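Protein details
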Amino acid sequence: MNTLSNNYTKIFISLIISLLLFILVFKFQTQYNQKLNQKIKISAETLYTDKNKILDDVKQIVLTGNHREISSLENELEKMSHIESAEIYFSVNGEVSLSYYEFEPVVRVFNSENQSYYLDSNCKRIPLSEKYTADIILFTGYTENIKDDLILNLAKKINSNKFLSNQVSEVFVNETSEAFFIPVLGSHKIKLGSFNNLEIKIKKMMTFYDKIIPKHGWEKYSEINLEYQNQIICLKND
């Protein structure tokens, strides 16, 4: 009986020692990770990327002491779909600094099958992110029939005009590649037609809002057609 009791005591003591060792190791690892995290400085506006995941990757380089992996990690970061450039460097006091920049989307594009992507200012396609949805102008409809650079060019023209950037929420492209502005205010739609002569068409659109709307109000017209030279064709509501 005493032998059995002694065995239980030994097992209990072994468990206590193992638990204490686990607590000590866990505490040491936690403190080390906290110190390591403090040594790693990440400078980035992270709307799309997982900052914690990138931090873990940098920590692995520090833990292994293989600084030659820095350029490799920089290249891997720059291959990520949402990152434009990245730079990692070590300071004399042992700190690790990482700076990276994400692509900035200008327009979000949906095609006729509701597939979607962003375009940045250099016409690079950027996939969507589960972390963040950009509040930018939309192009919808049969956009697969329009080249990305034409979409981006029109989006930039809209964004560069303070009034239009607030008034035009969406550009719809129909099956024959004609573009329509979908305004925020008013029940009308604005037919742009082709993606040619945009400066002239936008000037006529501003004439409509500056001259015609103040006289006739927001609800008189159902469609404004800008595609014909030297004309603004306004279709009345029934």
Observations:
- The radius of gyration is 30 Å.
- Residues 2-39 form the longest helix (38 residues).
- DSSP finds six helices and twelve strands in the chain.
- The longest strand covers residues 83-90.
